[in-house]
TrEMBL record:
<keyword id="KW-0560">Oxidoreductase</keyword>
<dbReference type="InterPro" id="IPR050006">
    <property type="entry name" value="LtnD"/>
</dbReference>
<feature type="domain" description="3-hydroxyisobutyrate dehydrogenase-like NAD-binding">
    <location>
        <begin position="171"/>
        <end position="291"/>
    </location>
</feature>
<dbReference type="InterPro" id="IPR008927">
    <property type="entry name" value="6-PGluconate_DH-like_C_sf"/>
</dbReference>
<dbReference type="InterPro" id="IPR029154">
    <property type="entry name" value="HIBADH-like_NADP-bd"/>
</dbReference>
<dbReference type="InterPro" id="IPR015815">
    <property type="entry name" value="HIBADH-related"/>
</dbReference>
<dbReference type="InterPro" id="IPR006115">
    <property type="entry name" value="6PGDH_NADP-bd"/>
</dbReference>
<dbReference type="InterPro" id="IPR036291">
    <property type="entry name" value="NAD(P)-bd_dom_sf"/>
</dbReference>
<dbReference type="InterPro" id="IPR002204">
    <property type="entry name" value="3-OH-isobutyrate_DH-rel_CS"/>
</dbReference>
<protein>
    <recommendedName>
        <fullName>L-threonate dehydrogenase</fullName>
        <ecNumber>1.1.1.411</ecNumber>
    </recommendedName>
</protein>
<feature type="domain" description="6-phosphogluconate dehydrogenase NADP-binding">
    <location>
        <begin position="8"/>
        <end position="167"/>
    </location>
</feature>
<dbReference type="InterPro" id="IPR001557">
    <property type="entry name" value="L-lactate/malate_DH"/>
</dbReference>
<dbReference type="Pfam" id="PF03446">
    <property type="entry name" value="NAD_binding_2"/>
</dbReference>
<keyword id="KW-0521">NADP</keyword>
<comment type="function">
    <text>Catalyzes oxidation of L-threonate to 2-oxo-tetronate. Can use either NAD(+) or NADP(+) as cosubstrate, with a preference for NAD(+).</text>
</comment>
<keyword id="KW-0520">NAD</keyword>
<keyword id="KW-0119">Carbohydrate metabolism</keyword>
């Protein structure tokens, strides 16, 4: 790969994860253009010194690397191959990193479509959250040609602390991410159920958090999401709708394989119920609010003096 200063990167999707990735690349000297439908996100990135573009085709003009950090497979297809898509204008022989959670067969399809126009495709789902994205410490569950991974290694090292190369074929990375999302969704739902159950027993929730995070019942999601409940802050770091989608993918794959996923399916219904209650775009810790509403409980609310 060229030096960072000579490498043109287009990051499509400046949400909580994509913005952090773009910021990390910019910090490490890459020439980065950001693309997003959210004008505020574009202004924030421009304020950091990054370039911005109104659409993927413009942003990806002659790009060596396009990183698609959108919500799902449909959005990935649109930003890569749709009208104004990135693949048509990026550098031939350039590389696409596709980061959205999707069914493995769709990742395989996208890889073939890229190959047809002389673009390389890496199936690179990500995990770690907004904080790790901003610090360049994500985990990448990748699959695709090892030579392609080697070509873009400086960019990978800029955005991730761990890059797993899991096979030569697109779709393997997506499958690993689906397993991760099964666990993540179940653990979030369980954490929200546990902290709301503690409230129903009239326990000191701050003390519950202290004790559980030092005990065997802890999980990364309990430790990460329960503070949102304790602070009454449900601004979306990761939205409820993400897990209705991702656990839906788990359910679809399980049904096609005739493999039962009863715990994941129960968790999915908890997210669906939360979305149905009007909280689909709120933080996924809102599952606790949904349970509290059903049980007639009052969870902590945000302190107006500390907002903003």
């Amino acid at each position: 790969m060229k030096s960072p200063q000579e490498t043109k990167v287009c990051v499509i999707g400046l949400g909580s994860m994509g913005f952090g990735m773009a910021e990390s690349l910019l910090r490490d000297g890459f020439a980065v253009t950001g693309v997003d439908v959210n004008a505020d996100a574009m202004e924030r990135f421009a304020a950091l010194g990054g370039a911005v573009a109104a659409d993927p085709a413009t942003g990806a003009q002659d790009a060596d690397l396009v990183i698609a950090v959108v919500v799902n497979a449909d959005q990935t297809e649109q930003v890569l191959f749709g009208p104004g898509g990135a693949v048509a204008t990026m550098s031939k022989g350039g590389v696409v990193m596709s980061c959205a959670t999707m069914a493995p067969d769709l990742a395989s399809v996208f890889a073939k479509r890229c190959a047809e126009v002389g673009v390389e495709y890496l199936d690179t789902p990500i995990s770690g959250g907004a904080v790790r994205a901003a610090s360049g410490e994500l985990t990448i569950m990748g699959s695709g040609p090892s030579a392609t991974f080697a070509r873009i290694r400086p960019a990978l090292d800029s955005v991730a602390a761990k890059v797993y190369e899991l096979g030569e074929e697109a779709g393997t990375g997506a499958a690993f991410k689906v397993v991760n999302q099964l666990l993540a969704g179940v653990h979030i739902a369980a954490a929200c159920e546990a902290i709301t159950f503690a409230k129903a027993m009239d326990l000191d929730l701050e003390k519950v958090y202290e004790v559980i995070t030092a005990s065997a019942g802890n999980s990364w999601m309990f430790e990460n999401r329960v503070p949102h409940v304790l602070e009454g802050d449900y601004s979306p770091r990761s939205a409820v709708d993400i897990f209705t989608k991702d656990l839906g993918i788990v359910a679809d794959i399980g049904r096609d394989m005739k493999f039962p996923t009863p715990i994941a399916s129960t968790a999915m219904q908890m997210f669906v119920m939360t979305a149905a209650a009007g909280m689909g775009r709120d933080d996924d810790a809102s599952v606790a609010r949904m349970l509290a509403d059903i049980a007639g409980l009052e969870l902590p609310t945000a302190n107006p003096a500390s907002e903003g």
